[in-house]
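Suppose a colleague, Dr. K., hands you the sequence of a protein chain of 80 amino acids and asks what its three-dimensional shape might be. Before reaching for any lab equipment, you can write down a predicted structure in token form. Begin with the sequence itself:
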Amino acid sequence: MTHCTRCGRRLKAPTPTGLGPVCAAKAATRCEATADLWFDTEVLAQRARERLARHIDIETTAAQAQTMYDFAQARERCGL
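The predicted structure, expressed as tokens, is then:
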């Protein structure tokens, strides 16, 4: 016995998609009003690149601030 990858129900026989008959029927029907939200990969990729760039900028700024703090602490310990 195999299981549906979407809902976890037991299947009598494996399917090529891994979905059961109910989930396959639900996946085949989609709302045209929201179809672009899920399948516009260029927009999703651009948003992911923007989030990644923002995350890198934040982490870079935090690392630079920590490095400056560490140098100040080291200079203080050395008496400079």
